[in-house]
Amino acid sequence: DDASHSSAAAARITAVADDYRHLLAWELLTAVHAIRLRRVALRGPLRTVLDACDAIVVSETDHDPGPDLEAALAVVDQSDALG
After folding, report:
1. With contact defined as beta carbons under 8 Å apart, do 56 and 68 qualify?
2. For labeling, which of 19, 23, 36, 61 is most exposed (least CB within 10 Å)?
3. In this structure, what is the dihedral angle of CA atoms 56, 58, 62, 63, given to the nearest 10 degrees?
4. pLDDT digit string, tens, across residues 20-57
């Protein structure tokens, strides 16, 4: 079998990168909720990341996570915010 599957792999890498981006955003969203609900005081680089997450709403009631996820994705896309 001399067939190269590199073109298929190259086409799929974009989808994998986007999936990873969303995974990081969900993890960030969860961490922000936990930190704010427990009122944990952060310093240094972690404080900088938390400050970049101001658009994420923390609520103990059910709500649409879409806007929060978009805010988390914006932070993930800011490479300077994550160090």
Report:
1. yes
2. 61
3. -30
4. 999 999 999 999 999 998 999 999 988 988 888 888 88
Count how many Cα atoms sit within 13 Å of the Cα of residue 66 in the half-sphere of its side chain.
1
Q: DSSP letters along 15-73, please?
A: HHHHHHHHHHHHHHHHHHHHHHHHT----THHHHHHHTTTT----SS----HHHHHHHH
How wide is the angle at C-alpha 71 spanned by C-alphas 80 and 60, nearest 5°? 125
pTM of the predicted model as reported, rounded to 2 decimal places: 0.76
Q: Is the pLDDT of residue 82 over 70?
A: no
